[in-house]
Amino acid sequence: MVKWKAHIQAWIENIKARIKHSQIKASVNVNYELLNLYWDIGRDIVAKQKNAKWGEAFLATMSKDLRKTFPNMSGFSVQNLKSIRYWYKFYNSNENGLQPVSQMELVEKLVKSIPWGHNQRIMYKCKNIAEALFYAQKTMDNGWSRTVLEHQIDGGLYDRQGKAITNFQLKLPEPQSDLAEQTLKNPYNFDFLTLREKYDEKELEDALIKQITQFLLELGTGFSYLGRQVHLHVGESDFYMDLLFYHVSLH
What's the DSSP call for residue 79? Predict the structure, then answer.
């Protein structure tokens, strides 16, 4: 019996590990798609300002328009659009040590595999691409949080042991690492997955019924929902019940 329980528990632990792995994989994929979008936006901004001679004012117009259309997304402030532009230019600038064309695809994959907050700290604190890629790779390898990453940059880890990254290693963060936790809870990723503004009425109704049904089932059988914020006058006092239920069997 004990052996059987141990076997079941081991199987459940395996399932839990697979769930965690899938969560991390999904969050990494969402993060990658978001940063792929940022990369494309940065490229387009750079191209427009170069070819059409647009000044800085259009960023405010762009920000206002995007935030009006996507009010729940926090990545379209003027400051963040400037950061997106800088991010693209940083990795495509000869001054920063432009990578060979054959490596640029790998460079993109590496920097798009870590959260936006990590990328911002790297690009603003590193002097060139070689240093930036060193810290991006170290972040992936060691599962660093933003705080640890910043500490390592400020402490000059690259100057002490850095060397050019030529063999990029792309892998999922370890489930228990700070990087995995911050990728899972990255607010930019949550904002990116906001639901569309206009819902199909039946979809919304089905979702509400599903949630209400689940809640009632958790209370147990026999409950009937009568209302919310129900007014009760007791003595000289007024009370409002958040939720009022009637138990059919107990009356």
Answer: H
Q: What does the alpha-carbon distance between residue 181 and residue 172 come to, in Å, rounded to a whole number?
A: 12
Total count of residues recorded for the chain: 251
Is the distance from CB of 21 to CB of 175 less than 8 angstroms?
Answer: yes
**Tell me: the pLDDT tens digits for 78-91?**
999 999 999 999 99
C-alpha to C-alpha distance for 57 and 225, rounded to whole angstroms: 55
Over residues 238-249, mean pLDDT: 69
Residue boundaries of the structural domains of the chain: 2-192, 201-247
Whether pLDDT at 124 is above 50 = yes
- Cα-flanking dihedrals φ and ψ of residue 91, to 5°? -85, 0
Listed residue (43, 87, 41) closest to 66, CA to CA: 41
pLDDT in tens, 140-177: 888 888 888 898 899 888 888 766 555 555 555 555 55
Lowest-pLDDT range, 88-92, 113-117, 180-184, 225-229? 180-184
230 strand-pairing partners: 241
* HEC secondary structure over 139-203: HHHHCCCHHHHHHHHHCCHHHHHCCCCCCCCCCCCCCCCHHHHHHHCCHHHHHHCCCCCCCCHHH
**Dihedral sign for Cα atoms in the order 213, 219, 223, 227:** negative
Buried b (16+ CB within 10 A) or exposed e, 70-92: eeebebbeeebbebbbbbbbbbb
